[in-house]
Amino acid sequence: MKIESVQVELLKVPANMLYEAAGHSVSHNWHILSRIVVEDGTEGIGWLVNTRPAFIYPLYEATKELGDLLVGENVYKNEYLYGLMNSYGNWVGPGGFLNMAMSSLDIAVWDVKAKLAGQSVSNLLGGHSNSVNSYASDRLWYSMPIEELLESAKQHVAAGHSRIKLRIGKVDDISEQINRINRLKEEYEHLDIMLDATESWSLSEARSFGEALSQTGIIWLEDPIYHLDLKGLRVLKDNLSIPIAGGEHLYTFESFRDTVDSSSLDVVIIDLSRVGGVTPWIKVAHMCESANILLAGHVLPEFHVHLLSAVTNGYLVEDMPRSENIIRTKLEINQGNMIVPQGNGFGIELDEDACTRYRVS
Ligand SMILES: [Mg+2]
């Protein structure tokens, strides 16, 4: 089935609330939205979302240029299409910018393929389950006072969540964070809590903070140290009782392979944009399965719910609704599970009026 056209749009979508993340003030969710239309009129969509404007225009231009390569090609041949884009741009790769530029196009290819098959992407990739365990990740920033954190937790529980993830940055003393976790646990006894340390600690800090945190019952400690320090991560995994999660910063097969081979993580988190789209995502997922490693998705729940439900080692989808202002589809959460949306492809309906309103290029 021939690809008739590829259109790439840049959207500057207002965030529902202003917040601080990873030391940056976030006011907008930038989207690079790719649309692929094939000869029978079927349209597939995919996007990348970023909270920072840095390099977003060059990334948009690179995505457009890669998209032009796909016109006239057979949409079923995702490996061929991926290779076409990868070899065209490999002088700025592997990984990094190139993967990000390819990702929304590859996602759109899979959306078309599944729509043509009359199936969800989840089913097309294996259809292991109709839902995935999920956790709430929005409005739980370390810049928030405890009262606001409790209010956020209350809203997440009311929305059907049973897990939340807190963030933490550089700290001198872990006791304040432990107090916050304990306070949340007092209020919501059955709430599972994860902690993302956003690579803020040294190895020695991570060891001592990790030991102190083990009393709180948190279900994972994410990115305690720099993600490429595999020896350090292995030390933490072997010495702490809390499962260690990480991987969202990895781009290439080799990085994932080295991480898996080093047995340094209990849970591998894959970022669909950084890994370069669905085609490589599924390979990394199977690589992790071969080592009995559980998988989580980094942001993009609209796509990750399909991918994680397709495979046997899909563990947790991150409910981070950065795109809810441009889609009509509402992701359903039920007793801590995210349900795979009905419909073919990714089952996502865009709010075209909103896309037009927020389009800047
Ligand atoms: Mg993280």
What's the short version?
40% of the residues lie in helices and 24% in strands. It has 13 helices and 13 strands.
Structural summary, described in words:
The chain has 361 residues and is an alpha/beta fold. The protein has two domains: 3-119, Enolase-like, domain 1 (2-Layer Sandwich); 122-339, Enolase-like C-terminal domain (TIM Barrel), CATH 3.20.20. The chain is built from 13 helices and 13 strands. The strands form two sheets. Strands 5-6-7-8-9-10-11-4-13-12 form a ten-stranded mixed sheet. The protein is globular and about 60 Å long. The structure holds magnesium ion. Magnesium ion (MG) is lined by residues 196, 222-223, 248. The site of magnesium ion (MG) has 4 residues, from loops.
How is the topology of this model organized?
Elements (H helix, E strand, L loop, with lengths): L2 E19 L2 E15 L4 E8 L5 H15 L7 H12 L6 H22 L3 H4 L6 E6 L9 H13 L4 E5 L7 H13 L4 E5 L6 H11 L6 E3 L7 H10 L4 E3 L6 H9 L5 E5 H4 L2 H13 L3 E5 L2 H10 L3 E6 L13 E2 L2 E3 L12 H7 L3
Parallel strand pairs: 4-11, 5-6, 6-7, 7-8, 8-9, 9-10, 10-11
Antiparallel strand pairs: 1-2, 2-3, 4-13, 12-13
The structure holds magnesium ion.
